[in-house]
Amino acid sequence: MNTNHMQYFVDAVRAGSLKRSAELNFVTHSAVSLAIRALEKELGTELLVHSKRKFEPTPEGLNAKEQFEAWLKNLSELKGSLTTTSKIPSGELRIVTAQSLMIHYMSDTIARFRELYPQVKVHLLPGASRTAHQAVVRGEADLAILVDNHALSDCDSKTLAKGKFVLVRKPSSKKRVEGGVIVTSMGKVEVDFLARQWRKYKKIELPVEMEVMSWTLIKSLVLTSSFIGYMPEYMVRDEIDSKKLSLVGTSLPAFDYEIKAAWRHGRALHRNAQLFLNLL
Q1: This prediction's pTM
Q2: Fewer Cβ neighbours under 10 Å: the N or C end of the chain?
Q3: What count of other Cβ atoms lies within 10 Å of the Cβ of residue 115?
Q4: What value does the mean pLDDT take over residues 59-70?
């Protein structure tokens, strides 16, 4: 039985979507569909209710999903134990992290790791902090790299860097913060913090220019316009040093964050994950 097919099916049931499973595994939608059909043929039963209107696993499908998860977990642990005894690092390394961290914090490390350990197959999967945390807890990833400001439950972790959220704009911009700020979402903890400080010290509501659910896109908008953006400083450190962007002073308390590496509580850190962290 093809373990890739199992993974496609498990991810589809978890996400409730064939499309999302395809995205997570970097394959096409049709590849996931064909894989599930192959599993059904091999098992002699339908795993999904085949309807164009909704995604729904059958009772047999839910049972199979649990069995597949256990098999995949055991296989991953077996590979890890065999890799640990080898002198030359090999096997796999599964990392879940936010796109912004991939681009602005980890890209050089990823390239260096591949140069040093070419026999290790790296699976770099996108996911916000909550998704990354859940992935290591469920055993779907060896390592999560995330932005966080509190203790992580069910995980062991290591703080890699600390920083603050900042307001930035182009040096040539004449726009004042009173004219509006681009933020991710008013539901995000760091934006709520900024809004509270604004009300407390300035006695007015935080003026929001627009909500954009991507720090990378906010940065791009700020670099190409007169907008003011709110984001973690690791995103814009190089641009501030090169004077492409400047900090906007407000005298308000700043929201602190930590970049953390996290792995499942109670388990020794995977050898390949430790090698990766040594380079960060």
Answers
A1: 0.69
A2: N
A3: 8
A4: 92
